[in-house]
Structures are given as C-alpha cells and as structure tokens.
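# nightly structure sweep
# worker-07 picked up a monomer target from the shared queue
# config: single-sequence mode, recycle default, output format = structure tokens
# input follows
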Amino acid sequence: MESIFHEKVISNALKVWGLELILFNSPEYQRLRIDPINERSFICNYKEHWFTVRKLGKQWFNLNSLLTGPELISDTYLALFLAQLQQEGYSIFVVKGDLPDCEADQLLQMIRVQQMHRPKLIGEELAQLKEQRVQKTDLERVLEANDGSGMLDEDEEDLQRALALSRQEIDLEDEEADLRRAIQLSMQGTSRNICQDTPQTSGTHLTSEELRKRREAYFEKQQQQQQQDPPGHPCGKPNTSSGALDSDLGDAMSEEDMLQAAVTMSLETVRSNFKTEGKK
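# output follows
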C-alpha cells in the first residue's frame, strides 16, 4: 500500500506540469507497441527507492542516486536495461507529456557525451576504497617483514662465512701440525738407522753425499787388502771392528755430524714429496 501511496503522490505532483504516469508493463501500454527509445522519461520504483531514466539531448542517462554519477545508456541497451529492472522487481512508469526545459537537455542537444568509465554504486566504491586500504596495509606489513628477514639473512650469511673461515684456519693448523710431526718422526727414524749402521766419530759436519763416498772408499780399500794378502795371513783377515771403521771413515765424524747428515737427507726427501704432490 505504501508503494501505491507514493505512486499517487508522484502522479498528482506531475499533473501540475501536465504530465501523466503510465505503467510500462500494463496491457494498455503494451498494446501501443511504442519503442522505449521514442519516449522521453521513465520513473522506476523498488520498495521505497525511486529513480529516473531520462533522455537528455539525444542520449539516455540512468539518474539513480545510488550511483556515483549519471550512467550513460545507449539506445540499443535501453530496452534490455528496463527488462533487467523488471526482473529485479522494479515497477516502471512511462512519463507522458512535454517535459519542462532544462539546461542539461539544451546543452546535450549540441554535444554528445562519451563516458570512459561507468559509475559505481556508492557502497561498492566505499567497499573498494576500504579493500584498497586493507591491501595497502597488508603490503606494508609484508614489506616490513621482508626487510626484517633480509637483515636476518644477511646476519646468517655473515655468520656462515665466519664459521667457514674459522674451519679453514683450523684445517690449516692441523695440516701444519701433522706435517711437523711427520718430519720429526722421519728425522728420528733416519737418525736411529744411521746411528746403528755407522760408528760414532768426531769431526766436521758431512753431507749425505760425502758420507756415502767415504763408505764406498772404505769398502773398496778392504777389498784391495783382501786381494793383496794371501789366505791364512793374519793381516789378510778383514778388520771390521769399530776402531778400523772409525780410522777409515775419519776421526773427524761425530754422532752429531751423523745426525745432521741424516736430518739433511730427511728434509730433502720431504721437500721432494711436497713438490711432487703440488704438481699433481
């Protein structure tokens, strides 16, 4: 009844201007078979909401107050738009008569409007603005989180590099310690062998080459004596005592000299091994 009351109120108000309301989907109007684009104005009602679809100049506009602005409607879309409103439950009335002149109608008689973006519902626009603010806030939070995680990642990378350098230093120290122990063991083993095979003498320092030459000379001298002395002669028996070896090798060699020669031989062997491994 409330809708009917509003309809009567609006109908009486329009009669003052010589205008009349006719229900768009009534049998009387449908029998007229009038194309909607040939009309001048429509009034649409759903519950307590009323709005106008009017022709201004040569173009149709949806003047719904729930939109952010007038919506341009093409001639081909007008009939479909009215049918859609009817499906949504709207009552549509045709305004018959000569509408009063207005500035908008006079201006649009000379120019045509081109609408790039359709207006949105006021509530929809507010919802979109709110959603954009929420998305912006979420984006700022994500960026802040990424900045913080980036700093943490850099700290972790620095820590990993420091640990790697520390491990490398420890490995180098272990390798140097192992090398020193190997050299000491090699020197000790070589010195024991030389001390067992060679008697103690005193004198100047000898190299490994000089030591080898003296021993070869000693054994050659022993062989010559055996060839000159007849068998059974007391002097023909080779003298292998430590005293004879000491006299032939020279009284100048001492245990320290023998150890020094052994150390030299050991170091030369170690150096040659390192060079060979380095080439590989």
